[in-house]
């Protein structure tokens, strides 16, 4: 009889499958003890996973529908964006080590050019007053590209500790460069380990091109990421992805060298941050907050288990709801542009009427027309 036989086949298939699936789990439990990955609770007790996220006054939660792709196929992993208003080009760092640029107007509108190959993995980008492009390269450190395309390494260590993941950067109007090393311990490829470790391996650092001095400003940061100078140049905002917050560091005045809260309990993990010159910061959210991530952050033992398991199978963390936030100069959340289907949007930059956003993995820059998509706001 066909039916019982099928039934038997199905049962043995299920049995085989469950054995196959349990091998990695058993192995990871065995290896668990010898593993030197030792995650710890985050600071602040239950704060980071029990409080609701800060309220969003304006939320457009379907931005993929309204997004246009710029340079599709030509811009692999355009992580951060920098705009040069003098030539009307937007620059981005790609995962193949190229800095590429795109014309945003004129007869070459949306044309993409391979500009300079710097060889590492460029992340944060910012223009210096002399129109050099300063690059935080995850692998190489802090680089400078002169307008003629000449590349030089500025610094790759501080206090005897090499950078592991140079990440965000901005340049003050006096030429001083402020940047982050997200982790001295883990590389970009291993960044999830850093995040799941719950340990602060990040630093906020300055580099003075007139003296070549590298100075650590703040230590023990939880995945130090984007940096943006305030318009008055008295302070800067820096993001700590793991703690879903950005803080203000004073660089001049009475409060010089001190830190204030800026915005906390974001609805996701902040990445690059940019000032638009019109009274807002734009912050890339690489992923929205999820129950899975909240639970992992709450229980270090689960993080250890996930990392052990990762050696055998890709553990789905169900990242979603990535997007871009806009925040006032005082740290009030103004708007969120996100989509459930979006992951690893890493930067947002408002240029004219468009919001451009970069990505760690997509092959294009995206943009939405802020005036038009307002009509489909919800
Ligand atoms: C800084 O370093 C560069 C490159 O090594 C060098 O050409 C320059 O003279 C140095 N400047 C100072 C002030 O030491």
From TrEMBL:
Glycoprotein keyword on record: yes
| One GO molecular-function entry | hydrolase activity
- Residues forming the Strictosidine synthase conserved region domain are 167-253
User: What Gene Ontology terms describe where this protein resides (cellular component)?
Assistant: endomembrane system; vacuole
- Keyword presence, Lipoprotein: no
Which SUPFAM superfamilies does the protein's record reference?
A: Calcium-dependent phosphotriesterase (SSF63829)
The record's subcellular location field reads:
Vacuole
InterPro entries assigned:
6-blade_b-propeller_TolB-like, Strictosidine_synth_cons-reg
Family, per entry: Belongs to the strictosidine synthase family.
Query: Per its record, how is this protein called by name?
Result: Protein STRICTOSIDINE SYNTHASE-LIKE 5-like
Source organism of this protein record: Ananas comosus
- Gene name of the encoded protein: LOC109713629
